[in-house]
């Protein structure tokens, strides 16, 4: 993780909209119409380069954190889907990392676009993300029209609103959009403030985005984190003892706090990576369950043992059972999903 010192559709479950404050850390997931736009926005918001000169193409998920205007901000850049023709297996792996890096759920999803290059293909860039997270993610998506031109916002907005592709995209995202002038932001920071304010407003209205995958991933991450911490108990004891020998009073308390925060961060990051690698089958089976219905999915698992033909037959039988028994099918689904994910 880079650290900056400037410091088909599934069932959705939203947390109650919180009262956001400047003390609330923000987790933000970032997609874009180009790697360059994602990199430029990340650099402008965090106030420092978090991508190296060689990283001109975002092909892997990257998590970057910093303190911005007295708030802890984490930006999780997903692979740019326009610049990379990623195989489905790699794309799903990277999106699973995005889930783990933004657990227990992102406060907002940013879709960074060039306001001077909006085409009919712009919405297509979002389709894999919508397919993976479900259509409800669009309610939490903020379109960020990033540019570095010295033009008045009203002048740009007037032109952009004439663009049919933009109007369709804005409608899909509940008219949540924001113009962001990267050039102006370097001198005054007003663009970042406007962005954070807009995110706060969206969270106040809808809460953070979460679903079954995020909840399952967070539960696994916390479990893995406890395991990693336990494995480091000896190292932690020795370090604390060394700090006690070197410091005292307030200085000791300060050093212990810094060390605890460092350990917490390291264990969390390792746990996120471990869990991301374990979630493959979970996501694929959940996607299939949504596509065919819970009853059919139960039947598919019942037929799994006898091969592909058994899966098809089981799905048909299960769909019928789901229609007849309703609640029983739901209960079976819940039990099978829990058993399956626990096993993987």
Would you summarize the structure shown here?
This protein has 344 residues and is of the alpha/beta class.
Kindly state the mean pLDDT as a whole number?
80
Radius of gyration: 23 Å
- Give me the number of helical elements: 14
The fraction of residues assigned to DSSP E strands is 5-15%
Structural class assignment: alpha/beta
- Overall outline: globular
Q: What can be said about the biggest beta sheet?
A: 7 strands, mixed
Cα distance spanning the termini: 26 Å
Unreliable stretches (pLDDT < 50, length at least 5) are 3-19, 281-344
Specify the CATH architecture of the largest domain: 3-Layer(aba) Sandwich
What is the CATH C level class of the largest domain, in words? Alpha Beta
Order of helices and strands: EEHEEHEHEHHEHHHHHHHHH
- Name the strands of the widest sheet in spatial order: 1-3-4-2-5-6-7
User: Helix proportion of residues, in percent?
Assistant: 55-70%
Query: What is CATH's topology name of the largest domain?
Result: Rossmann fold
Keywords: GTP-binding, Membrane, Nucleotide-binding, Transmembrane, Transmembrane helix
Region (Disordered): 1-20
Pfam families: AIG1 (PF04548)
Protein name: GTPase IMAP family member 4
